[in-house]
Amino acid sequence: MKSHPYVLYQKHVQCLHEYNKHFHQIDKNIDTLIDFHDIGKLNKLFQTRILKIEKGLPVKKNQADNHAVLSMFIYLLNEIYVKKRNDYKEIFKEANIIRGHHGYLKTIKEFVNYFSEINKDILIEGLEAIYTSDSELGIAFRNFLNEFKQKRSLIDFKKLFMNVDWSIDDTIDMQLKLSRLVDCDRLAAMRKSKFNKRDVETLSLFNFTQEYINRLPKLNDDNDLTKIRNMIDLEKWRKRPKAGIYSLTLPTGVGKTLTALKIMEWWNEGNKSIMVVPFLAVTDQTEKIIRDIYKNYPNNEGAIGGRLISSHHSMSNGKYDIEDDSDDWSMIERWSGSIVITTTVQFFETLMSRNASKLRKLHNTYGATIVIDEPQGISYKYWQQLRGLLPIWAKKLQWRVILLSATPPSLPKETVKMIDNEYELYTYLRRTRLITEKSVSSIDEWIHKAWELTKNNNSILWIVNKKKIAYEIYEKVRNALDREVICITAQETSLKRMVLVDKIKKMIKENKKVLVISTQVLEAGVDLDFDVGVRELAPMPILIQFAGRINRKAVKERSDVYVLPFKNSKYSIYHEEEYNHTLTIINKYNNIINESDYLKASNEYFLMCEQKPPVIDNTYINAYKNFTKELDKFSLIENDYTVNAIVLEGHDDEIKQMFEKVTGEKYINLDELINTYCNKDVILFNERRKFRQILNLFSINTHKDQVIEFEHPRLKGLYYIKNN
Fold it and tell me: Which residues form the HD Cas3-type domain (predicted)?
């Protein structure tokens, strides 16, 4: 009997057990799930299909050889009629996992109704095709099948699960068990049922970050940032604390990311470290820093293609429909790296999912240190719900969660502060002040006012809320000013953004005149330091985050940062109450907020949000608690008209040089790279992983109507556009 082409069924099951025993033990083991998840493949129809695949013959699926459904029914027979179990909630979880391990988990309501949807005749056809033995289960199976054909109804099963009592703990437990089963199953399939110890190893993190910090240029001793850095004492956190939620509040510019990475190393102890960044556009910058830190890791494991670092976001994985001939047993989707870089969207949408592929990585987070960077950037509508779930996840999964921010949002009540003197750190800061100007009526008026406020400086940053407005401003001024004008948004590929950021850094360093027009993409995770800035009105924490791009290294005595609102609401992207709270605080400070008051102003803003929320919505926390279909609607990106796509266009010398700098390899034309990949007879795992990582460098987020899906099976689920 075969489980996959050329793989014996028994060998496959044994390999799953071997993988399973090397993972953390989470609540109960999944041995029973492993034993039954593919038992429906012991089916004459399925075995015939496997044989045809091996011979290269065309195959067509038959409803009667749906092995997941057959496996679920054999499991139910064993647990209810052989073992006489009556803990129907646990049986529901496990049956649901077996049925959904190639797709998704059904809600309780869907699962109950599922027994009314199944065609009994087709089910019996499939069950009759099962090879049976004279074991207790085999005899019971044949007896049950005869009884089922004559007397029993599918409604008998339906009645058992109609009144299941459910809780959040049950949701997490079911997600975890599915995660473990799917990961073991796909590893065994990818490795042709030959256990590979490298798949379950987590590489240790050494003292690389401190060594990297020691190599960085030092600021003068009398610099304000130097004084603040000397005040930060985290030595008491060297020892790994108990699982829970921790907050690390540090002013912009003092090295928040590097500090968090250093703590990750302290707390590693053979567990994963996960860096959750706010935007897709920031992952490349963060990955670049982390790869630079670990570039000398033994055996080149810190390089692209190595096992140390995984970057996983919405460009990282394609979709595959057929288990037996797909090659998507991707290590990226399971977060195989010791250090994982992902986005806020990917992280939370995984946790709120019932999709098997998305949940595959969940059990690999057990015991992890998770840094959530800039959590204040999450919409209040979602944060008010997620902060209630974070402590529950941390307890169940033994996470150490660090909420990393200069202006943290309202935190879970269980949060432990890692810095005792947060406000004291800010009292020494005088790099910037936020000055709010009178609102303007049009884009032309905004440009005129912004230029008047900033024209006497060399490096200028203008930020607006919408990409469309940024490009419109760029087109109006790019040939009209006394300097080079650069526009940078999330519409640039990762490589293009790297080129532009490096160019901007060089121009700033050489004191050249430059105006950068951008969106929120430049407000987090990008180490740029401008002389002056103007920003469209946004919620208070975002304005403060923007100020962190100005006079960042405290080279000037003080820089003014201007807030320039539009009168017309058509330019806004935030909730009206978020603007109202921000304007209330601005008025309280008479339109001028000094940097020493930034943390105070931010906390006042979040307190106002608690007292008068921009929106009250418990939809998703209730959906998670009760495991209902509303979970499917959860998305931190509140539109469904965008998709990630690879930009197929010619590349100039700067792009080619950046490619070689990032990958350490000679530039290769993207069309040539894709054709070579698709035409290879066999693709090894490392080749597949490296290929996907390279594609990420050429990706953007764009409208669905602008993209084309690749036709080749190896690229299924990936999109491209001819030019950007």
Answer: 2-187
